[in-house]
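To: structure desk
From: M.T.
Subject: fold request, one chain
Message: Could you run this one when you get a chance? Sequence is below, nothing fancy, just the single chain.
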Amino acid sequence: MADTSDLHHWHNSTTSVTDCILGLKKNIDDDELPGLGHLIDDWFDPHVPVDEEQFVQRFLRVFKQSDKDFTYEKIIGDYDDEVQGIFNDFVDGKINAQEAAQKYRPYETVKLPKRRGDLRKGGLESLVPTDLSEPISLLAALPSSIPSRVRSFFAKLIPGSKRPKRALYVPSFIDLEFQNWGRTVSNTPAITCVPNTARDVCDIVKYAKKHRMGVRVSGFRHSWSPVFGRSHNKKDENNGDILISSLGLVDASILPNFTSLPGDILEPGAKDLNSIIVVDNKYVNGPKLAGGKKYVRVGTSTTNEQLRRWCIDTGKVTLPMNIVEVEITMGGANATICHGAGINNPTMSDLVRIIEYVNANGKLCKIDMSTPGILRAAAGCFGLIGVVTHLVLEFDPMTCALMEPRKFPVIEAIPPPPDMPDSAIPGPLRPKHPFTPERKAQIQQDFETRALTTDYAEWFWFPYSSEVWVNSWHKTSDLSGAVNYPSDAKTILQVFGTIAANIAQQATALLKATEFIPEVQTKVLTWLAMKNLGDIGEHGKKIKTWVPDALHFQRGVQNVRVRDLEVEFALQPKVSTTSSNTSSGIGTTSIANGNGNGNGSVLPNGHANGHLNGTIPSVTGKEITTTTTPSVKGKEAESIDFATVQRAWWDAIITCYQCISTCPQRMPLEMRIMSSSQVTLAPQRGHSLGTCSIEILTLHEVADIWHPYAQTVLDKWSSLKDAQGQLIPVRPHWAKEWYGYKMHGRRWEEVLKGETSQRGGFKGEIEEWRRLMRQLGGRDGWTVDDARFRFGNEVLNSMFWQEGGDVVAVDVDGVGKKKEKEKEKEMKKKSGLVKRMWKSCFE
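Reply: Done. Structure tokens follow.
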């Protein structure tokens, strides 16, 4: 019989994060962790001032001074003496954060990390001659190196260059193992190339065509789903394909990553593929823009950090939304239809006005606003039509954000749904005294007001915290008095804080102090995370900063490797405004039944692709139009029922507490309210009232116990029902985890391919996309077979190009079963876990 002694622990536990940290002191050996006990005392003593800088400095100093734990040396030891010197001087108190920021300069090509393990097989020694500075001794040009016409041209212009032969080739690596950032995908391309120009990309694709090779692209490698290169047979050394890395392999592969730290990242790395320029309406074949809006052409290897600086310092424009991380490329954000927050904001791909891509024949082509249906289909198609080299997006004039970061009790940030009794709320989160109906109504109104009236709103709950961090703001066109946020000093502290979090995960002395108890380990990480997030207070002064800064308020996120499952579902109407045809919030596109032109499908409720005021292009696709940002105001806002959103949020929290004995979730639960989308394959498409985007994350260190937990939360979210008792369809963020999960007992990827949008799939959208791409291929001189062979992989081909049939099964965890069992055994030994705990979680 199963031991159920832990069965109700989650419900009755009253141990808060604060109590847990204070209780940790008794286990701390001052010889092993010198000063940590005093830091805990000082942090919780209201009479002892400890600011963020002092906390980070003192916490890191504990591990630097330890004679028994060498995690600090291990983590910073991978970097050159200059970086180590700055880091050590800060930790020792010789310089402050501002001085550290002034001293720091990012890696140049000649400054490679001492550790090259993450570059895997082949290593830097396989780099063929390039026009970059040689960091190490390189081999002569390999037979498989790819000639570059651009470099050859410049070599002829400058015959006196020191190494003219080096100018003839695109930088290439042989048999270099690829791993994505989330460590869910691995493969070994035959060649990995690092091009600088669109012409380099043309040369690479022509080389691939000549040698019958496939081509896929990666940037910061942030996707968890199988959107990268093909798999390969284990008996083969490689998959016979080419991987184009839009970034240098140091930035793409090595952690910690310092992209976000102060310094001139465009020197010496400026190139065609990360160029940023303003273009006119003739270039996009579209209307003139008014009110300070601009068309901006960006290279797809442009990072969010480069774009952020350009917008503030040069362009004086901004995107209305973006993802938080600066460590992502514009190409990667567009390919997988990434988004930000704000009820009036669609996805980033909705802002695309031109796509410049290299087709299967190595020819540079352009999709502009004269074919809006094709543009919407190509803006977010996972690189399946070719290698995208540049995008033109529509930018808003520069505005400021009035940031209001707050910490609220969990029960007040997003209230439980009305039908949830207080007894169902985990003990540590219940109010000390039951709320009056008036108080509950006020909390509900505050939540809905923030969700519907701010320009940006998101909610973060770190596991077992008694508070939710709420990040919301309004925009203003008044630019006076704006400050950079975070400041250089705070940026340093944020990045150093991520290193502190990694040390906390790995330090044996600290794990020993936690007695290897998952709950304690998780609460330590929550403590470190929450103390790093600001709170201006109820009557505090708002932080006025540039919108690009507000969008990227947290730097260094790249340095904490995580797993991530995210779904999108439609906001629901209240009962009084509900109709049987639109209760799920997703309309049926005309193309789903095999008719319609796909250039602006009309939903039954009169909305265009889910936009309240979308513009329908003509049947011929020749109408020049610009998409308009939907808005939810007045009666439409009043008609939204947030009970489903609240239930999804609290289902995740309760599941987290149910599994407190193992703590598979060790990073936050996050939620954003956003708009719909007109992009053909966007999961937000058809959400006429807007979208709830909700996700759970954990540390990569506990990946072995993550999947069954994430599946349980997904089962909860996919069981949500509308006012008529019908299941509300949920669809995944394409870049996050979805492959390998189940939806109502079926493989999720099969549901996504084979079911309509009302049942959580993309059947009609995929048929529409495939038809439009055939039109594009006919116009630009390539066939579906060309694109499928050159740019697809097993999963994407079977999902999008192949009509009918099953989606191919591949390994998405990057490890074989033997490795998986070994890792699971090691994790159980380390954390003292047993299988019965998993069973007891859900009985």
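Reply (cont.): The longest helix spans residues 488-506. Let me know if you need anything else for the meeting.
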